Amino acid sequence: MSGKATARKKAALLIAIVALVAFVILGQIPGGPRTQLSIVSGSENEGLEPIIAEWAEKNRVDATVTYLGSVDISREISKGAETDFDAVWPANSLWIELGDTQKVVKHRESILRSPVVLGLKRPIAEKLGWVGRDDITIQMIQEAATAGAFRLAMTSATQSNSGASAYNGFLYALSGDPDLLTMEDLEDPEVQAGVKSLLAQVDRSSGSSGWLKESLVENPAAYDAMINYEAMVLEANLALETAGQEPLYIVYPANGLSVADSPLGMIDKGDPDKEEAFLALQKHLLSPETQESLVAAGRRAGLIGLSASANDEIWNPAWGADPDRAIAPVPTPSTEVIAEALRLYQTELRKPSLTVWVLDVSGSMEGEPLAQLKQAMGLLLDPAAAAVNLLQPSSRDVTIIIPFNHETQKPTVVEGGESTDLAAALQRVNTLEAGGGTDLYYAIFQAFETLKPYNEAGTLFDYLPAIVAMTDGASDVINREPLLSYMNDLGFGRDVPIHAISFGAADEAQLKELNQETVGRLFNAGSDLAKALRSAKGYN
Question: Mean pLDDT, to the nearest integer, of 472-500?
Fold first, then answer.
């Protein structure tokens, strides 16, 4: 082969390599680099992610969606341009109003709406005479729940928008449906007593609307009713019917009705490429074709009321679904009133919590893990730090702390929210040392033992009880079978959720078994134990 031919081949090879590199760098297909778009959303939108994914693939956008609770979304917004996210999609505009102190959210548009409703097992609705009626008020729901007609589940008003919206509706209804909720309404003793009485009927709580829906579907016997978005009840009913279970009947409150407006907004970071991608996504979501898809997914798109063309498979009249119903939501009060209402909920009106913290101090916790654990507990036991996340204790809460390794240490019990008592508990946590093996099962047994006196006194379910176990390793299994047998014999062993926070080398299979036995949730801490602990506390 001649020297010229060899040179030509080398040149051709070099061109091919350069083209291949450009091909990879520019996004693997012709058309330039792909745009990255990171969205933080409420869990109620998880079922809509395929719509975003399909659009992103067609438009050379790498769109990722992270699901957080409303308070955490608001916290991200408060970071301004420093947040890792490019766009926010909370369930309600109020979380943008509360968090956007730096005024960085722009191009905000409501994508869909979903009223907050009562989903009730149909036999109970029939017994109450509520089927086919449109005049069921918050007061009637309160009266029926107080009389023991059903067990009620809803999310925390300070952690999830569906709970906050329902709570806002309770305040309006029990204030006599004013034009706008005011500070004077919040201070009214009769209003406070009424809301406190209604919240006292909550049987199970959650920090996530989506998880509450999934939990009901997986454990229908544990629930009679849930307050949640209409869309979540419709999704639950589809899954329940598929599983051969009884669907819920939807009751639209005749007063105090709240609606999630699901605003999608962009965090202004001065990036024109991201802005172009965001606006294109928003336009797609608001297009007639996508809005029709949202209606098919059980969302109210466009106007609040829907036409009779809504598909009966999802908008099933036998479930009480009423797409033609004119929805008149209560007005949103000022941000000052919202903030005070949430503080009042957390410190005075909600059902008190009885939380047993089961803390791993085995040898594998030595060093950074134990330091993280102490820091995380400080965020809960320090009232000022807890208030930042709307997790401050009330005067009626009970907090029990049980450190464990292969043995359990003496429980620390704090009744109420006195700062001196909480400080003493935190001081004990800060003196904990790591060492020994791991026997989570025996520690859970001891947690139940601390709850037995409340059950024997008939006061256990005057609280929202929960056991929260934090561990970074696999447990010895010698006490697994004895624990499960004990829970069966206990009487309330399946009625107190066991939530678990895993980090390090925790055996998630062991933790999930305990979750499933008690309708609890597993939280994977990853590198942020404090965030996982905050999330778990939002469940009671």
Answer: 96
